[in-house]
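Q: I have 241 residues here and want to know how they pack in 3D. Can you give me a structure?
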Amino acid sequence: MSRMLIVCLCVGWCFVFGACADFARSNACLANADPSCDESNSPLPNLNGPNPNFPDCDALADKPQGPDSCVLRTSGAGRSDAEIFLNELFLDPYGENDGAQKIEVWNGASGDFDVGGYTLRGCGTELSFADGTVVAAGGFLVVHVGLSGANDAGNIFAPAMNTLDAISGEMALVAPDGVIGDYVQWGEAGQSLEGYAAAEGQWVAGEVCVKPVEGTSLSYVGSGSHATDYTARYPTIGSPN
């Protein structure tokens, strides 16, 4: 099936950077990261040269589209039956990372999805979702790594999770039967779950995302299971990328 990437305008201007490229922080003022800064005087991180890892668009596998995304995701190989995804990882907030990191899961299905029994696993830590944990259709579930708080429909607090390695690491969403349903690695290839994810068609062995600069999220904006389907951009935790 022919695959294509369509860049469009969302509400206001939508900025999509070459995924996992080298980004220069140019006094970036980042929403939800440093509330004291003035965005009007601080430009977005700039793309600094071409992305050597970016393949031809036709080489990309497919993953369903998130609401209001600026890149069209068509159904296709390895992803047509998937419903729940890793959508955004806020790995390196400004200041201390302890208790400030977040992992966002998105339900791409047309109905509510019970993630009870699913596990987030990576960087030597994990979180298993309790039975009855439901993500609404098209909705988001935000996991607050290493932070205590009161859970609600859109937020899970995970004080027992260790702080994630923001320089080099991985994160997998593992189904109750042990199958990896989604995966991403950053900083360095060859993480411990990479081979399993590749065997399930959820990653390409040897590919790796360059870690986001401080204050940006590693966000899914592509159409497949490649490192190039992720990009560094303003955090949009709890809402579409």
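Q: Anything worth noting?
A: The first strand starts at residue 23 and ends at 24. Residues 194-199 form the longest helix (6 residues).
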